[in-house]
Amino acid sequence: MIPLLLFAGFFLLLFLGVPIGAGLALAGAVAIALEGSGFLSLSTTVYTGVAKYPLLAIPMFVLTGLIFERSGVAARLVAFALAVVGKRQGALPAVAIVVAMFMGGISGSGPATSAAVGAVMTAAMLKEGYPRAFTASVIGAAAATDILIPPSIAFIVYSILVPQASVPALFAAGIVPGILAGLALIVPAVWLSRRHGFGEVARDGETRPPLWPAFREAVWGLMAPVVILGGLRGGLFTPTEAAVVAAAYGLFVGFFVYRTLTLRDLYGLLVEAAEVSGVILTVVALAGVFAWATATLGIIDPVARGILALGIGEYGVLALLIAVLVVIGMFLDGVSTFLILLPILVPIANHFQWDLVWFGVILTMKLAIGQFTPPMAVNLMVTCKIAGTTMEATVRWVGWLIVAMFVALALVAALPQLALWIPHTLGYE
């Protein structure tokens, strides 16, 4: 009964509106108290859950994303992309997706990119006749690629929970699937635009923006992923140190290159980054109580054995996990999902001898789909607010984007080398 109360209590607390972190800690603490197993160790469990060196990268990457958002990098990337693509039907949705992918190479946070790209692209797309719901759907889906394209906060948390998968290997493994996911989203976005006649077509004599000036303005944003990933590959710094370098690079661009940031802006950025990071790390710390409860109560092994005993085979289990995680991803953020479910999922992966780096990419792709799948899609919440529309209105359009992302997921699941080729080539595995 106690294991049942653990999960039932957690979901009841969520239904009552209790914050996720508090719900995880309360459910775990009550279960431990009823079991009578080491209740006085809860404070130590909370501390050890967050006292991990790689977690230092999270507040720095959050700060980096905010710095590049406020310094005008997104707007300059949009101008450069338009100069490359030109003005044609379907161009703006494609530009939004590509820019979101570049921003993913800087911040690693879907909601942050939804806000940054949405602030720039929404007005432009509405001006050219794209419906509000379509605009919100495309930008929200595009921002979901950010937890795949390195640096990724989700990958950092996964690496902490699964030590066999290093952060550099996960970052490298996310590159091809992240690009593949972005390209998959472009196909329905452009097709829907042309089918429904969204967007203006360039008129006779109308030229695209000058390419060289647009590139010159955007080059500092384009170089950010190169600095982060190049430094990691060159051994100049660890992933945690890379987060600090990225933040320093963003401050240099904002203060001395674009000159769009002031000391007052910096104070606001530090406060906001502390608030966002505090929420993430609090969830990580409190979720340690829930994870400890599942281990203490002996829940993990029976659940894993129960899934394996279904007799549906390797691919059947993988399909089941995909379905379950996409549904859970609609309601919980990626960090919480990893903290709750990885203790159960990793033994299953080990049973089938799945590569844990590839498995981490697959899990993250599932969570990315949940970020823009109604009714609780965190990315869509942000873009719908910016576009001035409702979540219900996006269902007509977002379904096509979900299907496209599932196609990318199926390819990576069927062809593991799409994720593992770069890590193997770079010698991370």
TrEMBL record:
<dbReference type="InterPro" id="IPR004681">
    <property type="entry name" value="TRAP_DctM"/>
</dbReference>
<feature type="transmembrane region" description="Helical">
    <location>
        <begin position="80"/>
        <end position="103"/>
    </location>
</feature>
<comment type="subunit">
    <text>The complex comprises the extracytoplasmic solute receptor protein and the two transmembrane proteins.</text>
</comment>
<keyword id="KW-0812">Transmembrane</keyword>
<dbReference type="GO" id="GO:0005886">
    <property type="term" value="C:plasma membrane"/>
</dbReference>
<keyword id="KW-1003">Cell membrane</keyword>
<keyword id="KW-0813">Transport</keyword>
<dbReference type="GO" id="GO:0022857">
    <property type="term" value="F:transmembrane transporter activity"/>
</dbReference>
<keyword id="KW-0472">Membrane</keyword>
<dbReference type="Pfam" id="PF06808">
    <property type="entry name" value="DctM"/>
</dbReference>
<feature type="transmembrane region" description="Helical">
    <location>
        <begin position="273"/>
        <end position="295"/>
    </location>
</feature>
<protein>
    <recommendedName>
        <fullName>TRAP transporter large permease protein</fullName>
    </recommendedName>
</protein>
<feature type="transmembrane region" description="Helical">
    <location>
        <begin position="138"/>
        <end position="161"/>
    </location>
</feature>
<comment type="similarity">
    <text>Belongs to the TRAP transporter large permease family.</text>
</comment>
<dbReference type="InterPro" id="IPR010656">
    <property type="entry name" value="DctM"/>
</dbReference>
<keyword id="KW-0997">Cell inner membrane</keyword>
<comment type="function">
    <text>Part of the tripartite ATP-independent periplasmic (TRAP) transport system.</text>
</comment>
<feature type="domain" description="TRAP C4-dicarboxylate transport system permease DctM subunit">
    <location>
        <begin position="7"/>
        <end position="418"/>
    </location>
</feature>
<feature type="transmembrane region" description="Helical">
    <location>
        <begin position="167"/>
        <end position="193"/>
    </location>
</feature>
<feature type="transmembrane region" description="Helical">
    <location>
        <begin position="51"/>
        <end position="68"/>
    </location>
</feature>
<feature type="transmembrane region" description="Helical">
    <location>
        <begin position="397"/>
        <end position="422"/>
    </location>
</feature>
<feature type="transmembrane region" description="Helical">
    <location>
        <begin position="242"/>
        <end position="261"/>
    </location>
</feature>
<keyword id="KW-1133">Transmembrane helix</keyword>
<feature type="transmembrane region" description="Helical">
    <location>
        <begin position="356"/>
        <end position="377"/>
    </location>
</feature>
<feature type="transmembrane region" description="Helical">
    <location>
        <begin position="315"/>
        <end position="344"/>
    </location>
</feature>
<feature type="transmembrane region" description="Helical">
    <location>
        <begin position="214"/>
        <end position="236"/>
    </location>
</feature>
<keyword id="KW-0614">Plasmid</keyword>
